[in-house]
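Per reviewer request, we include the raw input and output of the structure prediction for the construct analysed in the revised manuscript.
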Amino acid sequence: MMAKDEGLNWVLMSRSELETQQLGERLSPFLIPGCVVELNGELGVGKSVFARGVVWGMGVEDPYITSPTFTLMNTYTEGRIPVYHFDFYRLSSPDELGLTGTDEYLDGAGVALVEWAERGGDWIPADRLVVELLHQEENPDLRHIELRAEGPRSREILHGFRQRYPD
């Protein structure tokens, strides 16, 4: 894993699916109840792999952590704190979330991991840690991963993470 410091942003390069998963695992001890992690990137870039790392890093031993594409949310309560893994890919409108009780999980007693968060509109809290994953054209195994803090809570999380893992 290679890293570049960008102030409130931290840019990393992952050379494999395993490194992307390990990044999620390493981040998990810094996540606290009520925090939201927004996972952005095109299909197949590794959003669910990163989320699996976070869930495993929380102490959940389920070997089948997958994206909740067809169910909207998977819940994992066996770890250090609950993890609510959302996938908004199939939403037609953010208004659909008003009928689901999603707001109770986005600022609740656990960590919310949200794939395709841009489809959630105003339901997504302003204070969140954004994880942007991008394919690298020169090498399909490489992933450009940017962690961006948006708000005081996410700044504290990113600061602690960067202190512990400077490279």
